[in-house]
């Protein structure tokens, strides 16, 4: 483990707190958002050095591979991340809510794995994971309902993301909402919160 740095002045001595894996994770995710992938990779590697098997480290490396088009690495990191999720949850909990920050890496990994199945036209596997996420997090703060509705309407995950981008530009998400309403009436995958 790295030594703590000490700052000295005439009046006092202050020891900087040691950074934990979550601090490196959040810095890494910010770097991914800014497309500073080399820096992000270092942060995620630091996560895994501090805490081997840390889900956030694998999730971050998976995100970098996905955004840089390295499909083989993306699958490898997704498999490692999903194995870490299953180790943490050998039996799925009743709820895994998005509002709890430490749940988000687990939920992103499950969603990413579902989307990868979806892209490979492994629809049964994708549907199972999408439905799991909607059960675990019924408020669906992730937007999984749009992905599963897209799958049922023969759209790939990137097409659904493009619909989001269009909705954001126009500040109108009616296309997405209409798709969910139509497909949910047939496939019954989501109960809208009251």
Task: Walk me through what this model shows.
A hairpin with a 4-residue loop joins strand 1 and strand 2. 64% of the residues lie in helices and 3% in strands. It has 194 residues and is mostly helical. The chain has a two-stranded antiparallel ribbon with strand order 1-2. The protein is globular, with a radius of gyration of 19 Å. It is built from 9 helices and 2 strands. The chain has 2 domains: 73 residues, no CATH class; 106 residues, no CATH class. Helix 6 packs antiparallel against helix 7 and helix 7 crosses helix 9.
List keywords for this structure.
194 residues, mainly alpha, 2 domains, two-stranded antiparallel ribbon, 9 helices, 64% helix
């Amino acid at each position: 483990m790295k030594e703590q740095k000490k700052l000295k002045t005439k009046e006092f001595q202050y020891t900087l707190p040691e950074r934990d894996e979550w601090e490196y994770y959040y810095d890494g995710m910010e770097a991914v958002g800014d497309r500073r992938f080399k820096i992000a990779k270092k942060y995620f590697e630091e996560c895994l050095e501090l805490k081997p098997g840390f889900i956030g480290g694998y999730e971050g490396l998976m995100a970098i591979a996905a955004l840089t088009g390295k499909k083989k690495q993306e699958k490898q990191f997704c498999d490692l991340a999903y194995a870490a999720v299953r180790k943490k949850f050998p039996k799925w909990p009743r709820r895994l809510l998005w509002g709890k920050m430490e749940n988000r890496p687990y939920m992103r990994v499950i969603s990413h794995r579902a989307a990868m199945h979806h892209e490979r036209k492994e629809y049964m596997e994708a549907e199972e994971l999408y439905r799991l996420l909607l059960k675990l997090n019924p408020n669906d703060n992730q937007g999984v309902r749009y992905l599963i509705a897209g799958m049922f309407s023969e759209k790939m995950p990137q097409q659904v993301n493009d619909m989001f981008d269009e909705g954001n530009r126009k500040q109108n998400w009616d296309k997405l909402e209409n798709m969910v309403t139509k497909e949910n009436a047939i496939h019954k995958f989501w109960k809208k919160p009251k």
